[in-house]
Amino acid sequence: MFKTDETRQAAWLTLCIWLLSGLLFSVTHAVLNGAITARVLATVAAMNLFGIIASIGLYQAALRTRRQPMLLRVGALTAAAVVCAFLLGLVDVSLMEFIRKTFEPATPPSSMPNWARAVVNMTAFLWIFGMLAAMYLTQQANWVVRERERQLAAARTAASEANAAASAARLAALRYQLNPHFLFNTLNAISAAVITERAAEAEAMLSKLADFLRVTLVADPEALIPLEDELATLQAYLEIESVRFRERLALEFICPDDLRAALIPSFLLQPLIENAIKHGVAPTSQTVTIRLEVDRNAEDLVIFVQDDGEGGAGEVRPGAGVGLRNIQLRLETLYGPRGVLQATPLARGFRATIRLPLQWPPAKPLSKAA
User: Fold this and answer.
1) Is residue 29 located within the same domain as residue 157?
2) Cβ partners under 8 Å of residue 103, min gap 6
3) What is the 3-class SS of the chain, one letter each residue?
4) 124 and 9 share a domain?
5) Which parts of the chain sit beneath pLDDT 50?
6) Which terminus of the chain has fewer CB atoms gathered within 10 Å of its CB, N or C?
7) Residue 61 neighbours by CB under 8 Å, 6+ apart
8) Of 139, 165, 191, which residue constitutes the final position of a domain?
9) Are residues 133 and 235 in the same domain?
10) Is residue 159 located within the same domain as residue 232?
11) Which of 165, 181, 203 marks a domain boundary?
């Protein structure tokens, strides 16, 4: 019958109010008359039962008007309380008349009409129904507020999940948008090696490509990984490119040991190296050095990628904007204004600087000694 906590609460409140009313009437009758008979107790119990039944109707009125404007709800429950009090007054008069005829037939009937006596008795019950109506109104108002809070919380959760999913999709799209350039270049190089009958070189590049793709394609674009893992991925990538460019590609990696555990987004640096190879190494027959340096500036991690390929002061390499813009978008998505990418043409070469908050992996809990 009572399917919700709200209904159970209303039932207990109603029961307690009527039990308290019956107790107060019984005590008052005993004090005024010196004693209380079983017949009086039975009458009080019967009236409380009819009062509880009438209160159920009052509660139903509160339920049916719970979403209506407050003024309309107050008016509806006030009218319902008056009707319930009058009906209970009639029941009281009818019950008293039944008791008089059954147990006290010699007692003359009252000269006042039953409806008039019901109106008089109504005042005794109106305060009970008025109090119940006020409690029902308060309870229903609290229910509406809690329901709106639950709906708002659900909407916020759905919006948060949607934003998280959108961010994840955006990060994945930005990351994988850069892969086809490298893949096409590598496949072209393998094709050229096969055509020129350099089978060993083609086989080596295929093997290294498979290893590289195995690492990158399973990586989570939202994951933060230790810097040393990112450098290992770069090493796998550069092993492929070194087969293509041989002595034309020279490398310098500088990373302090205490920063190797710092966390960065997966697959963040490879596009910068690829950009340096595409625009610095590929167009020339001279040796080009690509330098990657990691440093710390207060609470920020700073990574420099620089090459000494052909270029002029103030010149932006054609085609470099897409890859750099994607990296900037990833940094902004993950770190907001603290994620920065700066691209600077040099007198000879190009320099890209990444700045992001310095983060570390969570500390592992200490194992208890046996």
Assistant:
1) yes
2) 39
3) CCCCHHHHHHHHHHHHHHHHHHHHHHHHHHHHHCCCCHHHHHHHHHHHHHHHHHHHHHHHHHHHCCCCCHHHHHHHHHHHHHHHHHHHHHHHHHHHHHHHHHHCCCCCCCCCCHHHHHHHHHHHHHHHHHHHHHHHHHHHHHHHHHHHHHHHHHHHHHHHHHHHHHHHHHHHHHHHCCHHHHHHHHHHHHHHHHHCCCHHHHHHHHHHHHHHHHHHHCCCCCCEEEHHHHHHHHHHHHHHHHHHHHHHEEEEEECCHHHCCCEEECCCCHHHHHHHHHHHHCCCCCCEEEEEEEEEECCEEEEEEEECCCCCCCCCCCCHHHHHHHHHHHHHHHHHHHCEEEEEECCCCEEEEEEEECCCCCCCCCCCCC
4) yes
5) 1-2, 312-315, 319, 369-370
6) C
7) 76, 77, 80
8) 165
9) no
10) no
11) 165
pLDDT digits (tens, 9 = 90+) for 112-130: 676 677 777 777 788 888 8
Bridge pairing between strands 300-307 and 263-265 = unpaired
How distant, in Å, are the alpha carbons of 38, 45, 51, 124 from that of 21?
A: 17, 11, 10, 10
Q: In the block, which residue shows the tokens 């709200």?
A: 6
- Residues 149 and 265 placed together within one structural domain of the fold: no
Encoded tokens for 23: 């107790």
Query: What digits encode the pLDDT tens for the residues 282-310?
Result: 888 889 999 999 999 999 999 999 999 87
CA angle 142–143–147, rounded 5-degree value:
120
Number of domains present in the structure of the chain: 2
What is d(CA 137, CA 140) in angstroms, rounded to the nearest whole number? 5
For the record, the structure tokens of 81 come out as 């309380």
